[in-house]
Amino acid sequence: MSADHPLWLQQQELTCLNFRILEVTPDTIIAARRTFNWDCLFTWVNYTVFVRRVSLLTAQVMETDQTALMQKAQQSNQSPLPRGFQSGNAVLVAYIADQVDLEAQQLCQQRTKIRFAQFYLPAALDQNQHTYLIHRTPLWGLIYYTKFRYILNRLLKPLGTANQEPRSIAGMILTGVIIGYMLLLGVILIAISS
């Protein structure tokens, strides 16, 4: 892709974030990566990212896209592990728009429907450089949202720097508690059997 492509900066950013570019069209980039997160309860996250260039982003466009993009993500970025078996899917959509209507802004900023081991997060950037994405972290998926916001922010306003993905503090605490509990249980079992 050349520097005159409207999503060239986003493609470069995806490369910096270690994503494989699956498809490039004049108005869309599809990329994927599979990441093991020790800080998120030792889970694999199967990311599929869509970067879309649109002139006017509306709630109707987003709702239509959600169904199509979820299906496309399942087809183009399949995980070898079954979903939910220490593996989850994250579909992140970054819209680069001239205008984002009020309903679309609200959709980007609200929590999405809860799904088992699957996340769908849209975000948008308008021509005035205003970003619209979820700010409040829902309890369901708490350990992942720091990473999701980081990726979406990097795509909306590309930095072109090396990937310095944040660790999930909540995930590290939960992982530590579970490991501590398992060690304590092991010590108790050894003490009982002696």
Structural description of this entry:
This protein is 37% helix and 28% strand. With 194 residues, the protein is α/β, with parallel strands linked by helices. The protein has one domain (8-193). β2 (28-37) and β3 form a beta hairpin. The longest helix is centred in the last third of the chain and has 25 residues, at 169-193. The relative contact order is 0.15.
Q: For the residues shown, what is the average pLDDT?
A: 81
Task: Determine Rg (CA atoms, Å).
Answer: 19 Å
Helix content: 25-40%
Largest sheet: 6 strands, mixed
Shape: elongated
Reading the helices and strands in chain order gives HEEEHEHEEHH
Number of domains: 1
Number of helices: 5
Strand content: 25-35%
Number of strands: 6
Widest beta sheet: strand line-up: 1-2-3-4-5-6
Q: End-to-end distance, in Å?
A: 67 Å
Structural class: alpha/beta
Low-confidence stretches: none
Features:
5 helices; 37% helix; 6 strands; six-stranded mixed beta sheet; 194 residues
What's the short version?
By secondary structure, this protein is of the alpha/beta class. Helices cover 37% and strands 28% of the residues.
Secondary structure elements and pairings:
Blueprint: H1 8-16, E1 20-25, E2 28-37, E3 43-57, H2 59-76, E4 87-100, H3 102-109, E5 118-125, E6 131-132, H4 145-156, H5 169-193
Parallel strand pairs: 3-4, 4-5
Antiparallel strand pairs: 1-2, 2-3, 5-6
